Amino acid sequence: MDSGEHTSSTASTDDSGSSSYFDRVTEESSVGVSPESPVSHHHTGSTNATSPPPSPTRRQRNKPAPLRLQSIGVDPGHLVGKVLTHVRRSRTHPNLTLEFADGVVYQVLVDGYDPLHRGIARALEMDASLSPLFDPPGGHAAVELMVTDCTLVRLTDKAFDQKHSDQRWDQSHLAIAFKFGDPPVGVQVGGTDGPGTSGGDRGEESKWHCVWAALAEYDDTRGGICVFRSYDDVYLERRVRPPPSPRQQRSHRRQRSSSDGKNI
């Protein structure tokens, strides 16, 4: 038994028990699956990634039901048409901050995560093609990419618990799938026909990229192998910038006064 790390480069199930993107049972809801969706029921390898990006006015999708009783977060469709300018990934908590050209900031978060009571370690995972963008060296990067489509998708992956016995089950969870427009000249962003495959040159239609959350425990007494692995929902939340403090306001006024004095 290896570390149980998720792989998504082939269409087969690896020794860890975690299947590829193409082997996952994926759906958006039990009714009304949109033809523009990145995935559909019992995905077998073909995708709709080559279809033209749908316009925001005609993308009507049924939101997948969350694992929890109450849905949280905002519709990822709000990102469609926005230009992503900065990405920041936390090294302490499982969250991803996305800043856009219009000044709006969103975060990809893990449902049920409590920073004060963390429990089993959670981490955001993604397709290899998305790592250079969403997991940059240093934890942050300036970019310039148009979001042409974004939606929640339901995935089902193989989970296991080998702490005391060998238990395996299918774990359903929500992920967020992104489509981006062509990057500016000189900017390299991996593209795929579906998360988990290779390919994607400049000039091709935008491809789907997927972000999900995993929970894992390791046993140092057994060589650091993964003894538990499961998955949890991710969701999108708009981050509201706090108003400037009185001290910051005074500092801004002093800077403005100093600047005005120099211009006289």
* Class per helix and strand makeup: mainly beta
Rough shape?
globular
Number of domains: 1
Q: How many E strands?
A: 9
Enumerate how many helices there are, as a single number. Answer: 2
**Any idea what the radius of gyration is?**
21 Å
Main β sheet profile: 9 strands, antiparallel
Protein architecture, described:
- The chain has 264 residues and is mostly beta strands.
- The protein has one domain (76-262).
- The protein is 8% helix and 33% strand.
- Strands 1, 2, 3, 4, 5, 6, 7, 8 and 9 form a nine-stranded antiparallel β-sheet that branches.
- The radius of gyration is 21 Å and the shape is globular.
- Residues 7-20, 28-38 have a biased composition (Low complexity).
- Residues 1-74, 239-264 are annotated as: Disordered.
